[in-house]
Amino acid sequence: MQDVLSVLIEQIIIEGKKQGLEQKDIAHRSGIPPETLSRAKKAQDIQLSTLIRLAGAVGLRVALVPGHPVLEKILSGDVFSEDRP
After folding, report:
1. Which residue among 16, 26, 63, 68 sits deepest, i.e. has the most Cβ atoms within 10 Å of its Cβ?
2. CB environment 13-37: b (16+ within 10 A), e (fewer)
């Protein structure tokens, strides 16, 4: 679970950087203190409502998708690569 949260927070930060935003800007747009974002990155724990607000601040939304291996390969662009042991 911690890996998933870490990836989600990092994606939000990356999207913010694309828009010229620093982490403190993302936090302010979300209506949360910058320290909350910093703690979330370090502790790798965050409330879902806070994650949704952070994502919304950079134009993203949190969504659930089916966890099918084929779908994951399509989304990652690896649909034609062979699985090697």
Report:
1. 26
2. bebbeeeebebebbbebbebeeebb
Residue appearing with tokens 């965050």: 46
Answer for the pair 26, 57: CB distance below 8 angstroms, yes or no.
yes
Q: Given the structure tokens 């607000």, which residue do they identify?
A: 53
pLDDT, one tens digit per residue, over 37-56 is 888 888 767 899 999 999 99
- Mean of the per-residue pLDDT values for the chain? 84
| Total residue count of the chain as it appears in this document | 85
As a whole number, mean pLDDT of residues 20-48 equals: 90
Q: Specify the DSSP class assigned to residue 83.
A: P
